[in-house]
Amino acid sequence: MEMTTALWSFALVVGLLTLTPGLDTALILRTSALGHRRQAWGVVLGIQTGTLLWGTLTSAGVTALLTASRIGYEVLRWAGAAYLVWMGIGMIRARVKDGDADADGGGAAGEEAASGPKGEDKAPAGGLASGWRRGLLTNLLNPKVGVFYVAMLPQFIPAGVPHFAAGVALTCVHVVEGLLWSVVLVGFARALRGWLRRPAARRAMDRVTGVVVVGFGVKLAVSD
Length: 224
Hints:
By secondary structure, this protein is an all-alpha fold. The protein has one domain (3-222). Helices cover 80% and strands 0% of the residues. It has eleven helices and no strands. Mean pLDDT is 77; it is low at 95-125. It comes from Kitasatospora putterlickiae. Residues 103-125 are annotated as: Disordered.
């Protein structure tokens, strides 16, 4: 198998994986739909940074230790599950409080104060950096991403080519596809902002996303 063929084949596999709705999709849609554009792109960049790290570590042979060590895998799995449950519960509780405050005293004045000159929500404190940290931790604390790369990446590296360079090149294909799909997700979520400006809709969005995130955490905890 030539490197060009390997790149196209890997692009097809990870493309299907990218299009499959999951935790990354939920986080990007929720953050962008609530008007936190900088934070949403921070989440996107954090997720793709994690993907690049997993692919690079796999190419260097480091993540093979993860699949060989049951204890290491279990520690990372439970840390990831705890983080997701904590984040999901935080979404549900925090947005309920914010939404109630908007409903009690927000009105048009509150809505205007929370918006920029073009009706965009002001970026939350540390928007880009905060989103990047959230996306990165969500990706790195999911051991299944590492296991996926350990299982799949070597199969697409042609014989006779530098293993590390080929692995990083394949990972970059995954990152590019993830970024392109994120553009679609952010654009779709932005189209819903008019409806999501209502406090009840914002509360519903956070509750649904929070439940989804908690569900992923519980699934990660109970899966083997």
